[in-house]
Write a structure and sequence with these properties.
Elements (H helix, E strand, L loop, with lengths): L10 H4 L2 H18 L3 H17 L4 H10 L1 H14 L2 H24 L2 H12 L8 H32 L8 H21 L4
Helix pairs in contact: 2-6, 3-6, 5-6, 6-8, 7-8, 8-9
Length: 196
């Protein structure tokens, strides 16, 4: 499995995983419900960048995370720009980028074991109806897969550019193949640890 966590001693590293997960949920709700103008989105993106600095991460880490999202920004932003309006393109693309960067920051500053423990505790009231351990593992893997898949997309785009080819929509095929291969590797790693 790809290890996204970067050890550190910053305030964000020391915060309990439950507080970080709750903050991510609250920020996602606030951005979805209230951030409806260009200034709010600009402030949100600056705030996310500031959080990367508060975490003691080098600027290149933030740059790498933003660079991984370049095709998402281009496709989503361009589609909204053409079919809706430039302002809506900025607001909605900025909102998505801010949330993905926050999810990346969560996985960078939080050990997977801590995240699993919090999710397992949160799901305990539902233990009569669902397998809480499996559900916690599923949610934590889903969160950690966001930056992984965006990294795959960036690698594929770089490979296409190096070959001088443009696959367009067909670029989804290698992305799906690589994502499914990674999912198989994760499944093998979980099976080897007796978790599935």
């Amino acid at each position: 499995m790809i290890q996204l966590h970067r050890p550190g001693t910053s305030v964000l590293h020391r915060l309990p995983a439950g507080i970080k997960l709750a903050a991510l949920a609250v920020i996602a709700i606030v951005l979805s419900a209230f951030a409806h103008d260009a200034v709010c989105i600009a402030v949100s993106l600056c705030g996310v960048g500031l959080l990367f600095l508060v975490a003691g991460l080098p600027l290149r880490v933030l740059g790498t995370e933003v660079w991984r999202l370049r095709w998402l920004v281009l496709v989503l932003g361009l589609a909204l720009w053409i079919f809706v309006s430039p302002q809506i393109a900025w607001i909605n693309t900025g909102r998505v980028v801010a949330l993905i960067l926050l999810a990346s920051l969560l996985t960078i500053t939080t050990r997977m074991s801590e995240l699993l423990a919090v999710l397992w505790t949160m799901l305990q009231p539902l233990r009569r109806w669902i397998d809480t351990e499996a559900a916690a593992m599923t949610v934590s893997l889903a969160i950690s897969m966001i930056p992984v898949v965006s990294g795959f997309a960036g690698d594929i785009a770089d490979a296409q550019r190096a070959r001088g080819t443009r696959l367009g929509v067909r670029a989804v095929v290698p992305l799906m193949v690589r994502t499914l291969r990674h999912a198989d590797d994760v499944g093998d790693a979980l099976a080897a640890r007796g978790l599935v």
